[in-house]
Amino acid sequence: MKRYLVTGGAGFIGSNFVHYLLDKYGQDIEIINIDKLTYAGNLDNLRDVPASAHHRFVHGDICDAALVDQHMAGVDVVVNFAAESHVDRSIGAPDDFIKTDIYGAFVLLEAAKKHGVKKFIQISTDEVYGSILSGSFTENDRLEPSSPYSASKAGADRLAFSYFVTYGLPVIITRCSNNYGPYQYPEKLIPLFVTNALVDKNLPIYGDGKNVRDWLFVMDHCDAIDFIEQHGTDGQVYNIGAGNELTNLEITDIILRELNKPRSLMTYVADRLGHDRRYSVDTGKIRSLGWKPKHSFEQAMIHTIQWYKDNPWWWEKLKTGEYLAFYKQNYKRDL
Ligand code: NAD
Ligand code: TYD
């Protein structure tokens, strides 16, 4: 029985990964899922995962060394998703990014070293490379993160690598592009614009809307992590992406078209500070091992938009209170 410690497993990608593992390996695995349940953690994301010997949820903080130590015993594979993950929040209040993304990763690495885990997968991000106007970053390119979020992630990325070099901990680092899919907190571009459009609210487009991101369906990301766990080499970094590069305006067009909503909802607002123009990663390394995404962008995007349309119970309550207060405070306007 293979035992996983998944951190941040009540968040967007972590909860999809829990679903992925249980669907694929069912009775053959045990998952311990540690999540602090910050504003971004949501047990609704796991509502259809029954508590069982195969999935145990632990409400806790990865910065809590005693708690992490207690749950690391007997673990084979650590997959560290837990992080503060929203660039806009890191601009307003970086503190928690430094604590969770860097110090939390340190606590996990220490416990993994002590308990001799067989694999430690650090979920990093393509944002650690910074912006690139033409071409794509390979794993050997230098890191030039430009937001407090991406700088924190770069710190954890290199800290994890140092545990491989210094202590021989079997660490693998993944750097994935922007994800989309069900259960993504409605502060990120796609779920924000879909849920706003559904209730005829404005879609706030930063700057000229021509910033480019490479969009990957979340289940393809989960599949890539599982693939790397089995076929990756310790101490290596793997870029993950699908090559679906679109501007924010192109994403907005698709959402408005699918929901049959007017372009008048598009509202140009002040640009994000330090806004990276384009992210692009070269995924030749993971593809040379035999992995490629299974979902087409067009179909997975339509599926995602439909999911938010079908599940207002999931997102309606998230678009109130704290979330609106955050926007008002930081952007001096309502959404
Ligand atoms: P998310 O914000 O939706 O989820 C983060 C989860 O971590 C939440 O459930 C939250 O409660 C939990 N968490 C936060 N602080 C914690 C702490 N101290 N202890 C325990 N749990 C804590 O984020 P996401 O979009 O699912 O991203 C998951 C990971 O993937 C992050 O490490 C992120 O940097 C990385 N990543 C995300 C993307 C993307 O497009 N979303 C792309 C590449 C990499
Ligand atoms: P986001 O989903 O925050 O992901 P990231 O910044 O980590 O790539 O943003 C994706 C792109 O969408 C980015 O160029 C910023 C832009 N954006 C907007 O134009 N308006 C918004 O309200 C948000 C949240 C993002």
Helices, strands, pairings?
Elements: E1 2-7, H1 12-25, E2 29-35, E3 55-59, H2 65-72, E4 77-80, H3 87-92, H4 95-115, E5 119-125, H5 148-167, E6 171-176, E7 178-180, H6 189-198, E8 203-206, E9 212-217, H7 218-231, E10 237-240, E11 245-247, H8 248-259, E12 266-269, H9 284-288, H10 297-310, H11 312-315, H12 321-331
The structure holds nicotinamide-adenine-dinucleotide and thymidine-5'-diphosphate.
Provide a short characterization of the protein structure.
It contains twelve helices and twelve strands. The protein is of the alpha/beta class. It has one domain (2-330): Rossmann fold (3-Layer(aba) Sandwich), CATH 3.40.50.720.
Describe this protein with a few key phrases:
335 residues, alpha/beta, Rossmann fold, seven-stranded parallel beta sheet, three-stranded mixed beta sheet, 12 helices, globular, binds nicotinamide-adenine-dinucleotide, binds thymidine-5'-diphosphate
